[in-house]
Input
Amino acid sequence: MNATTAVPAAAARRGSSHGKVTIGRVLWSEWVKLWSLRSTRWSFLAGVICMALVGVIAAAIQMGRWSHLSLHERLTIKPIDLSLTGFDFAQLAIGVLGVLIISGEYTTGMISSSVMAVPKRLPILWSKIGVFASVTFVLMLVASLIAFFGSQAFLGSHGLNVGLGSPDALRAIVGNALFLTVLGVLCVAIGTLVRNSAGGISTFVGVMFILPVIFEILPASIGNAVHPYLPSSAGEAVAQAVPGEHMLAPWTGFALFVGYTAVAVAAAALTLKRRDV
Output
């Protein structure tokens, strides 16, 4: 992850020449740092492509093999969720980038320059989260809309096309963007806590992908009881028009996921405030 220390250094000079460092200046600094990284552009591009195109491709494939589907398979197709299948892949790009935008500063030593520019430290974290969350939400919402409308041409060939007015359609579309945004914030917190790119990405993958698999191989009585409360299951509930078995209600699950993220962010803030860089 390559970045220059010129941005925080410039912020420090502005802070010294014009008085205290303002949140606006820190936000601008984080905006410039975010887009100065090649990894940002590639990760966001990967996330948008996955979110926008995977669902369209999945719909095209399913409708293309319609004659080979059993009656049960035809009746159980979920048009909205099929069109938004890409969120499973997009969360990898967003999660990894969320870790990298903070862990990379520890890897390069740039965090020292950032702290020199903003001695109180916490505005760095709030600004980084604010900028990253805003960009993620807008991009993922646009990508979700593209996936939804792009899939309708294929779904309509067999009368499965739906509109924004269909039950839970708009909620699932916005829910995808919200889930991926909060996931990104969670990963920024993980990166701040771990301070290592490989370790942060491993933690993210372990929590969101491996942990659910572990509970799936446990006895059903245990797995079914715990599964709805795992971060991945709780967060994904709002991103699905028809939540799967053993999942919380959409907004209940999302609220729990936000709670997990808030705890992680609070721990990250405390760590950033007290720990030497």
Remarks:
- Residues 1-17 have pLDDT under 50 and may be disordered.
- The chain is about 75% helix and 0% strand.
- Residues 187 and 204 are 7 Å apart (CA to CA).
